[in-house]
Amino acid sequence: MSDVGSSLGGAAGGGEDGRAISDGSEVQIQDQQPVPPPMPTSRISVKHAVEVIQTFDEYKRWLVQEIGFGGMLKLPMRQKLNLKFSAWTMSKVSVFQRAIILSESKKLKFWPEDVHKVFGIPCGHRSIRGRDGHITPDAIQFIKKTLGMDKKGVHSLRAVEEFLLRDVSETSSKLEKDCFQIAFVIFVMGHVLAPTTKHDYATIDFWGALANTETISQFNWCEYVLQCLLEAVRRLKKDMLSNNPGTNLVGCHLFLQVFFLHSIDLGIFNKKHNVLPRISEFDQDSIRNMITMSTDIGKNPTSHSNNKLRAAEDVCYAWQKYPQDQPNTLLAGTNSGGNSASTACGAHQFPRNDNATVTPTHNVLDVHTPIARLGLLISHTASAHAIPTCIG
């Protein structure tokens, strides 16, 4: 089974322009009698990510906030995820509509801005899989070498983690600070936002967005997360059609859990939508109680489809303000209304409680840091030992 990030272009959840592609599997599943998804496993690890993040001092946390990923510092400790619930929510997703389909009249469409509200990661105007996200093989090799990934395996998340645990302070070199920021993005993508099927594996198809740390926040990481998730949904549905006894859930199914539970009416378990990022309020006990409360009584297999949706005025997600028939995919960096992606992602109604800022849409002056000049450094280096590294 190939990993999510191995697909080139926009294959993970859509074409190069971001449009979702339906392979017909969701139609076949809807025509069948309800069947539970296969027994799920997953390499997503919120617990491990939080354990590493908790070691950060104030300066490291500031470095994370500087690239727009401050929301990930708010991840609550989760010992484990309810993977059966994740599999159920994924089985209800229409790849083509980008929506959780509960019934013909109950559809929860999701947009990149919803990922931003849940995790507080950048939702900028540049496409990770587009022209702006191109990276040369030499630049990829440079990043691997500086992070020590060439020693422990070419895609090793363990090597990235070891770099994050190193001492980095205001007196560190610019290259070390840049490498820390790059390592953090690779780490949270591999463990939470876009995990794959493989152990200790970091996909590299988003590394072009990391080549210049000054512009990391200008890329649409939310759209990339959704594309990986939609590809994961497609894979799950193929496993269901094949009657496979087990399935490995990839992509950020944690997003679907939070988005779904936060959009349905659970009475006393409802959470207000006035704190961002939303993930900060979904601790282990809260999400367990909400899943239990959402379970349909007397249904076999287990279902959560009978819940009412919350009133639109109580919801911060995009489905409450857009018509059901409005497209919710990003084409060439814009939404269907012609506005920039980051404009759509930045339409907040409530005060934030974190430092994950909304990405500006104006051009930002490219600063030629050591990482920004990857290609230049490599092309002018006569031998491997002359390449500046962060390896101690």
Automatic annotation (TrEMBL):
Please list where the region (Disordered) is annotated.
Answer: 1-43
Return the PANTHER family for the record. Answer: AMINOTRANSFERASE-LIKE PLANT MOBILE DOMAIN-CONTAINING PROTEIN, OS07G0283600 PROTEIN-RELATED
Q: What is this protein called?
A: Aminotransferase-like plant mobile domain-containing protein
Q: Which organism is it from?
A: Triticum turgidum subsp. durum (Durum wheat)
